[in-house]
Amino acid sequence: MPTIITGASVTTEGIVTNTLGNNNFVAGATAGDSITSGGNNNTLVGTNAGTAITTGDDNTAVGYKALDTGTGTGNTAIGSSALDAQTTASFNTAVGSGALKANTTASNNTAVGYNSLTTNTTGSDNIAVGLGSLDANTTGSYNTSVGLDSLGANTTGVSNAAFGRTAMVLNTTGGFNTAIGRDALYANTTASNNTAVGFASLESNTTGTGNTAQASNSLNDNTTGNYNVGIGYQALRLNTTAHDNTSVGAYTLYDNTTGAQNTALGMSALANNTTGAENTSVGKDSLKTNTTGPNNSAVGQGALLANTTGLRNSAVGSSALSANTTGGYNTATGVLSLLGNTTGSYNTASGYKALNDVTTGTHNIGEGYLAGTSLTTGSYNIFFGTNTKPEAVGNNQTIVLGTTGGSAVVGKGANTGFINPNGGYMFQGNNQTVWAQVSDERLKKNIVNNNVGLAKINAIQVRNFDYKTAEEVGSDGVLNSNQAIIKTGTQLGVIAQELELICPDCVTTQSSGVKVVSGDDLHWHMLNAIKELSTQNAALAARITTLEG
Fold it and tell me: What's the angle, vertex CA 322, arms to CA 316 and CA 326, rounded to 5?
């Protein structure tokens, strides 16, 4: 079939009527048959291709009814009915049967794939690549859709980006969302400002806003929760309506459903949390089994690992408070500090293995390496210094302060205080040898005279002795060897058991079984003894004076 050249235009005789204008190529029945002298540089192939173009330039239409109503400029339509309804719009590209089929005046759209952007009318600056991508869009603009049915239901939503098969497939009016990966933001309808990167990330989100999910299945079940961040495989996987959570690491906050304002950083951190809120977890497996416990802070691998419902705990250091389950208001700073605590509450431990054996004890303080070690069930104890420890595991109300170069500084039993500067001396700022004592009459009643003195003092036997070694004390099988007095050489003093027979108020028996002497009553008995001796001395002096008279 011969080709007819008119001016600079080329037509095919018998297929189309020769057209006017310059540099046009037409082939097909009625293709380009309306071009006037103003239409230039058009390529139109197929029945009714570009049939409505009059003065438009630089259009390409290939396929049945491609660009058949369009008069704009710089459009490309390849495929049956591509850009079929376009009128004056320009710079659109449609590749695929039905692509941009309903577009009328919108410009700067790109549609590649069967029925991509097929219902778009006035929405501009959209990009759709893939069968059915953005196929329901009407007026929404600035959307990018790459993948089968991606943004398939979008109608008026703007500035969305969807990459992957069925990504954001149900979105209708939601805007400013980014979905990368198959089924990412799949169920999103009207929510905006979400970012989902990874297979099925934010898949169930419907109206939740301001969420960020990065990695496969992250924030998968989120529906209406807002402002969550899930980065890592299955991070915040089961979250539904909770808001303001931040989860970084595989399985972090995995079971969280409605717990809000949690922060989890590290694999499986807060993995089992369901409704617990305002927790902070940094480190692999930290707060892993927490379910409903709120306001906990865990920093370090395995910190607060076993916590379930315990609340307001703070753990800093690998495995700190790792066995805690329901105990609350504990603070542990240091690797393995409060390691064995389960239900004990209000404990404070600072230092490697500080209070590491406590299980159910409460209100204890341990400061220093191994401070309070061996205490388990005792409460209201204070330990300051390396390896300071109680006399027994259940001691209550004990204060131990000291250092012996690394060896244990052992307390004296319940309701006692012990200071040991490596066997050295204790000094007061005023350089006195005794402590001050409150003795205000306004605080006393039932005041009567006590004149017991010389009789008791005369009955007390002062002795020399040596202290037994720890091995000797232990071999006796009566007292714990940790109660041995580490002091060598001949000593001067009394025997408590002997003094107890004479002055019972001067001797007490501690929870350790050790008898201790209090010098207070002895001091006043000695004062009375001095007064008695003074009276006797005065009487003797008077007698001598009389005799020498």
Answer: 105
Express each pLDDT in 127-168 by its tens digit.
999 999 999 999 999 999 999 999 999 999 999 999 999 999
3-state secondary structure of 306: coil
Gap between the Cα atoms of 472 and 214, Å rounded: 67
Per-position b or e across 150-184, b if 16+ CB within 10 A of its CB: bbbbbbebbbbbbbbbbbbbbbbebbbbbbbbbbb
pLDDT tens per residue across span 479-531:
999 999 989 999 999 999 999 999 999 999 999 999 999 988 999 999 999 99
Tokens of 17: 């009527």
pLDDT of residue 478: 94
d(CA 28, CA 7): 19
Cβ(232)–Cβ(197) under 8 Å? no
Q: Is the pTM of this model over 0.70?
A: yes
What is the distance of C-alpha 516 from the center of its chain?
51
Residue that is written with structure tokens 């004390």 in the block: 473
Q: Does 19 score more than 70 pLDDT?
A: no
Among all chains, which residue has been given the structure tokens 């079984």? 513
Q: DSSP assignment, residue 283? A: S
Candidates 75, 84, 4, 79; CA nearest to 39 is 75
How do the domains of the chain map onto residue ranges? 1-131, 451-530
User: Do the bridges between strand 507-509 and strand 515-517 make them parallel or antiparallel, or are there none, so unpaired?
Assistant: antiparallel
CB 287 within 8 A of CB 271: no
Please say whether the beta carbons of 384 and 398 come within 8 A: no
CA distance 94 to 63: 11
pLDDT band at residue 13 using 50, 70 and 90 as cut-offs: very low
Query: Any idea what DSSP says for residue 476?
Result: H
- The dihedral through the CA atoms of 211, 216, 218, 221 has a sign that is positive
Question: What whole-number distance in Å separates Cα of residue 407 and Cα of residue 391?
Answer: 14
In tens, the pLDDT along 177-224 reads 999 999 999 999 999 999 999 999 999 999 999 999 999 999 999 999
Q: How far apart are CA 168 and CA 157, in angstroms?
A: 11
